[in-house]
Hints:
Layout: H1 3-28, E1 34-38, H2 45-61, E2 65-69, H3 76-83, E3 91-96, H4 98-105, E4 117-125, E5 128-132, H5 141-150, E6 156-159, H6 165-177, E7 182-185, H7 189-197, E8 203-207, H8 212-216, E9 221-225, E10 253-259, H9 264-279, H10 281-289, E11 293-294, H11 299-319
Parallel strand pairs: 1-2, 1-3, 6-7, 6-8
Antiparallel strand pairs: 3-10, 4-10, 4-11, 5-8, 5-9
Amino acid sequence: xxxxxxxxxSLAGLAAAILATGIAGAQSxxxxxxxxxxxATPGTTSDVIGRTVAEPLSRQIGxxxxxxxRAGAGGTLAAGAVARAEPDGHILLLTSSAxxxxxxxxxxxxxxxxxxxxxxxxxxxxxxxxxxxxxRGWNTLKDMIAAAKAKPGALNFGSGGTxxxxxxxxxxxxxxxxxxxxxxxxxxxxxxxxxxxxxxLDWFYxxxxxxxxxxxxxxxxxxxxxxxxxxxxxPELPTVAEAGLPEGEYVFWVGLLVPRKTxxxxxxxxxxxxxxxxxxxxxxxxxxxLGAEPFPMKPGELDAFLAxxxxxxxxxxxxxxxxxx
Length: 325
């Protein structure tokens, strides 16, 4: 056999072996237990959402899924750990809208919150509710905005921490409405809500799960929800757009990312299996009880969404004059 024929035959055999290896690798994924590294503390809504998805996903793929919480530094501890992890699809970052603010709120990160990750899928959207003290007598968002314009800088609002979703959502409303108010950060949502109930804070913008019962009991007055559609748990409340402030919408999301160099076969397999979970009626009901809505995306869609959300968050941070740490 001529040398050229032998070479072609050898190359063909090598190509077939490589293809077979790739197919076998895709079929065998996941090969071991999977870890979700979460940016939030145990028991928070985003943590519960991750665990709610992990349970049925584990059954589907035949591997255990362990959720590890590495809260701290605005989620950058967990994100940094995953950015450095082996990019084989077995370690995922359970993150949230906080990912979009990392580039703007932390000046010396050893990783890039957008470019060092690939999207798997978003899991849920958590509509937020803007709540005020009932004793203020404000019945609409326009009433609150009018009060703020009547006394520029006199009102105050709370958040679960500087740069958090509960902070940036209020800043976006103020930016859209052209008003100013004093920011009072707290260590968590519950402390701030106590202050609103007592009338010492004028408003708080927070994920719905924390205020649904308080609104129904009359302890808080809800003015609007941040999502594009009304909530099934609070159907009487208008969206921010319906309340006359379309630029004030704020999407608080929870999702899963992997290190950038993770093989597309692994990413696509994870996406496919997780979307099956998100379509189930059982999960939709559990999400509803958390005040969450399924928010599925394809990997490429999440990559584009994260880049855009980071850009929008940057504009909010700059307008609010929030300094990077």
